[in-house]
Amino acid sequence: MPVHPLIAARLPLIEGIAPGTPAELMPESALAFGAPYGEYTAPDVRVEEAVVDGPHGPVPVRVYRAAEAQPGARSLLWAHGGGFTSGDLDMPEAHVVSLELAARLRGVVVSVGYRLASESVHHPIPVDDVVASWGWLIASAETLGIDPVRASIGGASAGAFLAAAAALRPEVEPASALLAYPALHFPNPAVDDATAAELRALPPVLRFFPQVVTAIFGTYLGRITDLPAAESPGLADLTGYPPTRIVVSELDDLRGSGELFAQQLASRGVPVELTVAEGMLHGHLNIPPVDALPEIARSLDFLAL
């Protein structure tokens, strides 16, 4: 189906913006494109700050505890997206998603402020931060009131790559992996012809063209060859991988990565479920859930099952 009408009405605001334009160079119209679609009311969730002692230094985390959480509750370690180079604990994809998933799980979500890729920060540093945060979550199970056996790991976009890569480490044994519009392969798999035709109608700034994906992974890895297969989810041996739930945005160049990963998991006998958020663009969980855009709440419900 086409882009949701409310989102489509804002597309003219970002026409002409080149792909990869830094946030600080975006015109004011881009801010209007990302404005809320309605009034958002946060669920009853307590939020606390904490710091994890990681191998590369302190890692800030934010702990979300649902009012309904009981001893032995479910938990989730969550990593936001941002192309490996941007994003923080305050962005909706981190803060709002953590609020919503904590409430839906009736448990605890720990959001990770991992180090962002730069000229001096490359793989495996961000994954190491996520793995250290996982270790802290499990070690803090009694204090947090969670059942460590029921702890899951997840993330969105680049954060989904980091979460999925962390789940490949032997010291990380989550009950499940919860991935939102993940970018798990380089090069990025193609989408089907019908989706490709829909994508061609979008403003270029919303597209993940091959050169954009190359730049993203080049910055994260520090190279575009000799990829670390053991920690690249799309290249790794997925035997024994945890049960996985994947939500992809319908109108997203990266949709093919989530769909291929689901096929790869299934080929190894890993339980996997995938859903498509109809009419949604990449990063749709950066929009707080409101009645006017029900696919956002449906995506959150799917991840929290």
From TrEMBL:
<protein>
    <submittedName>
        <fullName>Alpha/beta hydrolase fold domain-containing protein</fullName>
    </submittedName>
</protein>
<dbReference type="Pfam" id="PF07859">
    <property type="entry name" value="Abhydrolase_3"/>
</dbReference>
<dbReference type="InterPro" id="IPR013094">
    <property type="entry name" value="AB_hydrolase_3"/>
</dbReference>
<feature type="domain" description="Alpha/beta hydrolase fold-3">
    <location>
        <begin position="76"/>
        <end position="284"/>
    </location>
</feature>
<dbReference type="InterPro" id="IPR050300">
    <property type="entry name" value="GDXG_lipolytic_enzyme"/>
</dbReference>
<dbReference type="GO" id="GO:0016787">
    <property type="term" value="F:hydrolase activity"/>
</dbReference>
<dbReference type="InterPro" id="IPR029058">
    <property type="entry name" value="AB_hydrolase_fold"/>
</dbReference>
<keyword id="KW-0378">Hydrolase</keyword>
